[in-house]
Each structure stands twice: as structure tokens, then as C-alpha cells.
Amino acid sequence: MFSTGKTLPKKMYILGVIVIFAAVYSQYFVKLGQVTGYLVVYGMPIVVVSLMFGKELLQRASKNGKTALKLGLGLFGALIALSIFLSIIALIIIINFDPQAVDLLNNPNPVLNVPSNVAWAMIAVSLLVVGPAEEYLFRGFMYGGLLSISKGKHWLPLAIGSSFLFASVHAYYAVTYGVASIISFISIVAFSVAMSITYYWSGGNILVPALIHGVYDATGFLGVATSTNVGLAARGVLMFIGVVFAVIYLPKKIRISQAPIVPIKAPPQPINP
Fold first, then answer.
1. Is residue 261 part of a domain?
2. Burial, 157: exposed, middle or buried (Cβ in 10 Å; 0-12, 13-18, 19+)?
């Protein structure tokens, strides 16, 4: 499980969160170039977070790699499948209250709205920059920092809470899709919870969530670079692999986690005559 190591001071954690949100939302108020944008949105928070908590994060970054991969893919598959079910329910509710709101879903995805030649480059950016940077900041610091402060307690509520914070930095979906953005946010929260639990159960592994995150984002740009069907097929394969891992490995993990702890009885003491 998660090893708390050196406890992160609450004031430093709050400062780090403020820096992350300020950097992410700066792009909505200041026009930034593509390279400058990545340096501001990811570079500045990474430097600040590294100074505060970087040693603790990097010490556990590759911990329990094989276990993290199995659990990460399984949790991804299970929670993304759950998010699809919840999204269908949300869509039905939206149609019932505002049928025209569904038309908003036809708006182009603001993240994927790039030319096909740029999309090829964005596949590499997803794998090498976005996935690692966001997992380092949001799973490693934002969630890992909460685990450090709480000394590993309340890990599941903290995973859910930090996932809503992660979803909140994707405000552009709310601007693009309006009330229909609920569907996008369900998927984002589900993905974040999956990566958070992976981080906790693996003892702080960041590399596996970064890999899954990068590949997941890259499938979207693959659809732009080639065709929508190819992108959907690639994402479908990733989800299928995740569901297979969920069926194989998650029941074992849950059984182990729920197994009762049998107290060790002290050996009988000899009776003095």
C-alpha cells in the first residue's frame, strides 16, 4: 500500500494546488503560444511541486511496476465501462429535460480540434508530455499529497475528491458542450479515480498511470490523424484489454483487501509447578 514517508505540510500542499490551478487557468485569460503554453501549464507547476514533494514522488514512481500495470489496466477497464453506463443514464435524463441540449455533443472536441498533420505530433505529446505531466501533478502531488497529509487514511474518498478537482481543470468541456458536458466529466472523473486507486494500491507508482493516460489520450489524436473509425477502434482495443484485466485481476485484489485479519495468538506460557 501507499507509504507516506515524509509528511507534506498542509500550507505547502495548498500553495501547490493554487499554483497548479493558476497555471492551468492562465491559458483562458492570457494568449499563449503552443510551446509557451506547455511551459506555463505544465512546466511551472512541475518545478514548484518538485521542490515541495518531488523526492517523495520520484522515490515511488516505479514501485511495484507489474502489479501497477495489472491493476491500472483493470481499474481503467472497469471504471471506464462504468462511466459508459452512467453516461447513457445521464444522456437519457438530459434528453428528457432538454432534448436540444444533445445537439451540443456535435460540437467539435476542443482538445482534438487540430489539423491531421498536427495530430500526429500530438500523439507523441500525449505519450511524452501530457500523460506524464498530468499524472505527476494530479495523481502524484494532488492525490499523493492528500494521502501524505492524512497518512494514508480515507484513501478512497480522497481519490474521488481529487478526481473532481482533476475534472475541474477541464472547464473547456463545459464551455463547449454546456449541460451535455456532464457526459465528458463522468468519463474524466472515472478515469481519474481509476488512476488514483492504481497509485494508492501500487504504493505510489506514477509511471503506469502516466503510460495509460498517454495512450488513452493518443487514441483520440490517432482518430484525427487517420480516421474516426481507426481512433475508436484503438480506444476500443485499449478498453477491451482493460476489461479483461479487470475480470482477471480485480476480484483477486478485492478478496485480498477484504480478507479478515486473524490476530496472532501468543504461545501458551508454561505453568510453574
1. no
2. exposed
The mean per-residue pLDDT over the stretch 97-124 comes to 90
* 26 vs 202: CA distance, rounded Å: 33
Residue whose C-alpha cell reads 495489472 in the numeric block: 70
Distance CA 141, CA 120 (A): 30
Please calculate the CA angle 164-202-10 and round it to the nearest 5 degrees. Answer: 50
Q: Which of 213, 202, 193 is nearest to 143 (CA)?
A: 193
In a domain, 266, yes or no: no
Reported as a single tens digit per residue, the pLDDT across 173-185 is 998 999 999 999 9
Is 76 within 8 Å of 210 (Cβ atoms)? no
Q: Three-state SS string across 139-179, please?
A: HHHHHHHHHHHHCCCCHHHHHHHHHHHHHHCCHHHHHHHHH
Give residue 137's pLDDT. 97
Q: Is residue 1 part of a domain?
A: no
CB contact burial 13-41 (16+ within 10 A = b; e otherwise): beebbebbeebbeeeeeeeeeeeeebebb
Question: Could you list the residue range(s) of the whole structural domain that residue 33 is in?
Answer: 10-254
Pinpoint the alpha helices (H) of 6-109. Answer: 10-29, 34-38, 44-59, 65-97
Q: Which of 148, 128, 140 is nearest to 166 (CA)?
A: 140
User: Does 4 reside within a domain?
Assistant: no
62, 207 in Cβ contact below 8 A?
yes
* Residue whose grid cell is 459508459: 84
Q: Convert the pLDDT of each residue in 27-82 to its tens digit.
A: 888 887 778 888 999 999 999 999 999 999 999 999 999 999 999 999 999 999 99
Has residue 260 got a pLDDT over 60?
no
Q: Which residues contact 120 (CB under 8 A, 6 or more apart)?
A: 221, 225
- How many domains does one find in the chain? 1
